[in-house]
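REQUEST FORM: STRUCTURE PREDICTION
Request ID: SP-0412
Submitted by: Lab K.M.
Chain count: 1
Length (residues): 67
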Amino acid sequence: MSPSIESLRPEQVVASTAPKPLDPAVWEAWLAKGRKRDDRHRALILTALKSAGVVGLLLGVGFLFRR
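STATUS: Completed
RESULT:
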């Protein structure tokens, strides 16, 4: 005799609601936040590159006049 397969609990049906319409003000705020983050990141990268360049030049000059 084969065992029967039973579900331990009934399946639940989840009704999905219609999505809310997009609010243009929220969308613009989200874009502005992303632009600010990108600008901060770009400024940080440029500062790091400038600092690395200055350190490289100082090290180069230091090795040149090391004798």
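NOTES: The chain has a mean pLDDT of 86.
Reviewed by: T.R.
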